[in-house]
Each structure stands twice: as C-alpha cells, then as structure tokens.
C-alpha cells in the first residue's frame, strides 16, 4: 500500500482520546519514553526538506508530546535545514537494515522487535512475506493496540499492517525473560527457522547481566540475525559527569537509566552471537546526504557521542 501523503502533518485535534494516557495501571516511565520517541519522528517528518514519512507517529505520541518536540525544534532553528534528530537517523538506518535482512532469498521470514514502544515499521515497511512480532511491557502493548484501534478516519489507511501477520507479545523482558520463547511460539513463531531480532534503543536500559541473559536465551536458529543500537561510552560518561549534570539537570534523570554502553555490551554476547558490522549513525547520516541536529547541551564532537547500530549473526 503506497501512503497517500509523504508528509502528513498531524492535525491539531489528532489526539481526541488523550484520556487513554491517564490510565492508572500504565507504566508511566516506559510510556512517556515511547511517546517522546514517536513525537521526535513525527516532528522530523513534518520537515518537507526530509524524505521521511511517519503518518502514525504523531497519533501514537499524542498532541502534548508533539507540541513539546516542535517547540524544541523551533527553538534550536532546525526546520527547513534538512537536519534530523539522532532518533530519526537511527530509525531510517534500521529501516534499511531490516529490509536488507529480509530481502528475497535471505531465509529470514520472521522479525521480533524487542522493546517495540510506539514503533510503526509493520505499518510502513513493505514486507508481505514476513511474520512480525512486537514485544513490550503489557501497559505499552495495550496502549498501542488501543491507539491504533482509535485512529481517526484520515489515518486508518496507515493502520493496516504491510507484513504477513502482526502479533503483539505483552511481556516485561527484565522480569519474565523465560516466558519469551513460549509466548512467541504460542503466537506462531517458528523457533526452528531463522529470525531477525531488532533491539532499537533498548540494550542500554538493561544491565550487563540482563543483556547477557537476553542474548543467551533468544531462540536463534542458524541464519538468525540481530540489529542492536547502543550508545558509546563517551556519551554515557558525559551524562554521568557531576559538573555536566549541574549545568544540564535533565541528565540527572537520564544517567541512572543508561546501564550499558557499546563497550560493555560487546562483553555480554558470549559465544552464541558475533558482531559482523558496526555503523556509527553520524557517519550513516552523512553518507546518505543527511545531517544530524546537534544537541546544544552536549559539548562534544557529534561523531564521538553518536549512537551506533550493530549487525549480529547467530553462531
């Protein structure tokens, strides 16, 4: 299905069911993070100088978060200059990596997205032969399912999955990892066939032991791959610097959440997975004629603090 509009600006009344965000049972931290990430993608997609479409992202984020991110982009003078956030650069890069991994003849016909949040890939990427599984904590899985079902008429054409099937797996990986395999299989996952795992913006929120256990337990038949994004040690050290936190108070909130960086992640894989490629997102953006917007509060060379994504293959 070809999207009818490449740059679908969210309408001012697009979030008519805002009350869904105030459910007391919702994991507020995870939900706010997933909404913020969706809002960044939505606002970047409003810039007609960028070849990037995300018609569902604003609806999934909600008007409040979209307004906040618009304000940040306007204050930092990013509109109309072809600048994109690191979040959007990561999304674009992993989009292409997913398409490459699932190309005809690769043998991969199933994708498991871990920590799915408000991701929209099964609605955007044309993968008619691929079974798609989204894993996230139950609160986010529920909210996303509800938001998709409530989408207004002008967005409904975008709520049709372009994959062979789309299954949600409500599971907290940090607490119930042993349930991942049986829950996937119950939804049609073939543990004997190659799979592509996508872990975008996830592993640095897990501790080193948690990442080790995760990659040790992931079902990985021969030919399986994983796409993993991770922050560099330089960025993690920067936000943990007390002097920096004094100047930028928001880093005090971020720092405790980031438990793993690229260097420590490499040590978690054991002998079941090996890294075959590392791509710095600053370099990737430049190679594709894009430029990353700088965070004015990070006083470092952009490339040294840019996130990377890794291509892993099962051994």
TrEMBL record:
| Keyword S-adenosyl-L-methionine belongs to the record | yes
Residue ranges of region Disordered? 1-32
Which ranges are annotated Basic and acidic residues under compositional bias?
1-10, 21-30
Q: How far does the signal peptide extend, from start to end residue? A: none
Give one Pfam hit by family name.
Answer: LCM
What's in the keyword line of the UniProt record? Methyltransferase, S-adenosyl-L-methionine, Transferase
Q: Name one GO biological process term.
A: methylation
Q: Which GO terms describe its molecular function?
A: methyltransferase activity
Q: What is its EC number?
A: 2.1.1.-
Cross-referenced InterPro entries = Ppm1/Ppm2/Tcmp, SAM-dependent_MTases_sf, SAM_mthyl_Trfase_ML2640-like
Give the family, as the similarity comment puts it. Answer: Belongs to the UPF0677 family.
Function summary? Exhibits S-adenosyl-L-methionine-dependent methyltransferase activity.
| Protein name (record) | S-adenosyl-L-methionine-dependent methyltransferase
Species per Swiss-Prot/TrEMBL record: Halochromatium glycolicum
